[in-house]
Amino acid sequence: MGIFSKKKGKTKSFHPTLLHLVLPYLIGITWTCLHPILSVITGELKCRGSYLDESALSSNRFTIPNHDYGFSVLTVDESGNNEAATSLCDVLNTHRFPTEQSSILSSPAIDCLIHPSSSPKTPSLEIVKIIPSSSSIQPSESIVLILTPPPTSSSWTASTFHSCILTLLHRLSTSKTTWLSKIIYVVTTTTSPSSSSTTSIQDTVATYLQAHHGIHHALPLDYSNTMIRTLLVYNISYHSSSSAMTEVQILPQGEYGALPNLDLVFTVNGIMKYYNGYEYQVPRHYTWNVDKMEKFGGKVMGWIATHVGWRKNKVEAYVRDFVGMLSFAGHLAIGPYPPHAQALKYGIDSLTIQSTFPSSSSSSSSHSSESKMVQQIEQTINTLAYTHERLHHSITQYILPSSTKFVGQSEYIYPMILILIGLVIKAITLAFMDIGRFCFEIGIKVTLCVVGGVSLLMMCFSLDYNDDSYGELIMYGYMYAVVLSLIGCIIPLDNDKNNKREEEKVQSKHWINENWKQSIQFVACIIAIYTHVPMMLSHVSLAYPSALFWCPLLTFPSYGNRLHHSRGGDADETKKTVLLQMKQRMTKIASILILILTWPPVLLVPKVFEVYTMYILLVYTPLHMFLATLWLF
Questions:
Q1: Residue 589: inside a domain, yes or no?
Q2: Quick check: 420 and 551 in contact, CB under 8 A?
Q3: Hey, what's the signal peptide range on this chain (predicted)?
Q4: Distance CA 536, CA 182 (A)
Q5: Do 104 and 128 lie in a common domain?
């Protein structure tokens, strides 16, 4: 048999069974679960430890003395006033250090620009530019630091962290900083105690990048004529209690599988360890909130280890790395994404360092940890200043089980192929063995309906609905219902024609021709393959959860020809017919329930994804429409 016609006179070839579809699927899942303790491609049958491929970033470059910044005591210049300064440029222009004769901004190596807002939705930017004083020519590369402004109840001179930043700016602008070889930009927004509106740091990053690249409300030429090599976002917040511990997270995840150079991640992590002391614990994972998952997994695996006889420390290490791997991949696939994700879209190596300090009212612990953070910022600038051009590390696709280990993307390609191979086997089986004659007419019509509906959805979602979730729900549901209604009108018409042809050939029996279902299943398998392979090559975390979900639904069921007798039979045949009808009804009810639960507006968008992403519109929705066609008609 083949797609186009049956071939007679040939012996029956090997036909894959359900076991041949399920076995690779299970092997792929098992292989993935072993990755925190076993890797084949990365090397040494284990996860690789942290290392730096760029020699200029090695630890012997950590030359900044390990000193405490302390709380900067600034005095008001003669031209200034004693009011609390919420504007960075005002502070630099009106304040000076006791050892200096003039304000910080009087140095020729430092300048400050207030970039006004172009609309009420975009923030006004304050950009400090520091030019290397020891360089004979103006550098063509720059490092950008984006900071959260002081709390509305504080100011640049009252906040410990921001006061230490002022000290850092002064140090970088002096002639003693001979190692500085790149232009430094410090970007923030102006806060006003009387203003109730707040600007998120995500908006600050997006506004600055658009202005730097001239997309919207461009910056002056002397503030945008350099190539941004590194962008670091320091998202600073405070606990409500002064006795809370300082929490720090390094977040590299970006949208669509984008990640910064691995050298940058391990460099910042190494600097934190080098200058940390006992102020706070260096994060064990490059993601958010995994402690609860670790505790639950540790209890389960601990119970198993007790009964099996495994070593407790090995089990704890496995659980810690496995939870870190799942959390890292999950946040990379579905978010939420850190503020620097906007910069990764422009091809800029960037990171977000998220720090939560104790309440600013505390006297010692908060001040010490905040000054340590500024010390690490200076060393990071010092380390990155030694590099020229872009970082040359070849690994930009990876998963980080912990802060000291990484696994390359290539490790997960093989289990991903094992999971997807069921789609390939099913498509080949349908094409060359199961389908007697491919129903081109129904297949093309159904495919056109799905493609047309998805295209209209893409066009509608590209419009600005002002984040109206109910409007999006109504629009999505309306378009989905229209597509299924068109498919429901197409299939009975063509199915009646096929039934008449079969009745002419087989007079004693009535065949319900379901070749069209096998044809639709073949098209769905092909579309699933061609949509998941590009996602897998982008980053395996984008395609892996989707493949786990869609492969069983599209490959395990079989939509073959079912035979029903039109003539009366004996009691056994009647009983079998009744049982078969009951089974079909129960299957239909279960199918409808599954379709409702997996319909995107029910659980996927509000619970998993915040908005209708490209994946939902271009991958999930078409496959769900094909699945609904197979199960409802």
A1: yes
A2: yes
A3: none
A4: 37
A5: yes
Given pLDDT bands bounded at 50, 70 and 90, which one contains residue 442? confident
- Number of other CB atoms surrounding residue 292 within 10 Å: 9
Helix axes 440-461, 469-505, angle to 10 degrees: 180
C-alpha span between 165 and 152 (Å, rounded):
17
Give the orientation angle of helix 515-538 with respect to helix 440-461, to 10 degrees: 40
The angle formed by the CA atoms of residues 271, 277 and 283, to the nearest 5 degrees, is 60
Give tens-digit pLDDT for 171-216. 888 877 888 888 999 999 876 544 444 568 888 999 999 999 888 8
Rounded to 5 degrees, what are φ and ψ at 216? -150, 125
Read off the tokens for 406.
């990484």
Query: Any idea what DSSP says for residue 151?
Result: P
Strand order in the sheet with 183-189: 110-115, 125-130, 183-189, 141-147, 227-238, 349-357, 247-251
Is residue 67 a part of any domain in this protein? yes
* Paired strand residues for 95: 76
pLDDT digits 0-9 by tens, 225-237 = 888 989 999 998 8
- Produce one character per residue of 558-574: b if its CB has 16 or more CB atoms within 10 Å, e if not: ebeeeeeeeeeeeeeee
Q: In what helix (H) or strand (E) does residue 227 lie, and over which residues does it extend? A: strand 227-238
Residue 99: how many other CB atoms lie within 10 Å: 6
300 in the same domain as 282: no
Q: Are 382 and 418 in the same domain?
A: no
Last residue of one domain, picked from the residues 333, 351, 366: 333
User: 367-390 b/e with 16+ CB inside 10 Å = b?
Assistant: bbbbbbbbbbbbbbbbbbbbbeee
Inter-residue contact 59 to 72 (CB < 8 Å): no
Could you tell me if residue 9 is left (phi over 0), alpha (psi between -120 and 50 degrees) or otherwise beta?
left
Cis peptide before 534 (omega within 30 of 0): no
Per the domain annotation, does 556 fall within a domain? Answer: yes
Question: What is the domain extent for residue 257?
Answer: 55-288+336-388
Looking at the DSSP bridge assignments, the partners of residue 356 are 237, 247
Instruction: Give the position of tokens 């696994």.
Output: 407
CB atoms within 10 A of CB 251: 24
- Kindly state whether residues 149 and 257 are assigned to the same domain: yes
What is residue 326's predicted lDDT score, i.e. its pLDDT? Answer: 83
Other beta carbons within 10 angstroms of residue 299's beta carbon come to: 11
What pLDDT band is residue 16 in, cutting at 50, 70 and 90?
confident
Q: Coil, strand, or helix at residue 228?
A: strand
**Total structural domains in the chain?**
3
